[in-house]
Amino acid sequence: xxxxxxxxxxxxxxxxxxxxxxxxxxxxxxxxxxxLMHAMVAGGADVIELGVPFSDPSADGPVxxxxxxxxxxxxxxxxxxxxxxxxxxxxxxxxxxVLMGYANPVExxxxxxxRPGVASAFVKxxxxxxxxxxxxxxxxxEECEAFAADLRAHNMDLIFLLxxxxxxxxxxxxARVASGYVYYVSLKxxxxxxxxxxxxxxxxLPRIRQHISTPVGVGFGIRDAATAKxxxxxxxxxxxxxxxxxxxxxxxxxxxxxxxxxxxxxIRTALDQG
Length: 274
Known about the structure:
By secondary structure, the protein is α/β, with parallel strands linked by helices. The protein has helices at 3-14, 33-42, 62-73, 78-89, 103-112, 121-129, 145-153, 168-177, 198-211, 225-232, 242-248, 256-272, and strands spanning 18-24, 48-51, 97-101, 133-136, 157-158, 161-162, 182-185, 216-219, 237-240.
């Protein structure tokens, strides 16, 4: 059982829902990420999604794009992100960490770090660092069977996005290769855009569950405790990213962890009130 599976199983047994914050690795300060991850766990995070900075992020809205640009300017790439997870794991062996990003950095990593007898340097290195899951936005499920098998062999999960426009066929394709959880993008468009229609989410979740047995997290548009609580009534997890990035944008170095922790504690309290 992967760390992600164990986390969701424990939460289900407690009648609780998962809180999954997203932050861009290397933002807002190049060296703050491991410390920030620990603060988010203290605030109630059950799984952490760590964004891998990329120069052409097709699914990211302006807030996360700006964060990614700043991290890239600091020289943060996949090598540094994996090192951050390794540092986090020195004192946290239980909280699952998911790397979220795009195909280009992963494939470039494999090219640059290639070594004999290793099918994917990225998979091997991420696993050894303590990564638990990977979400590659532009990897289609029908082309991911070998990658998913390699991840599972290293006790990592391959997570996919679903959208309001996803067809039943697409959901079936995802179901064949996905593990850990799936991430339902509750809005048409990019991260941080538009107002969340909770009724539409409530209508979509049963349809997703007809095809997919893994837990379903919902994100894109969850910005406060009230919305998170509403979504948690139908989803297995709530994912919050853009709002956290905004809160951290102008935070002094010493306040980055405390600001994220305080915000997540509000969300955690709302989720646990049921």
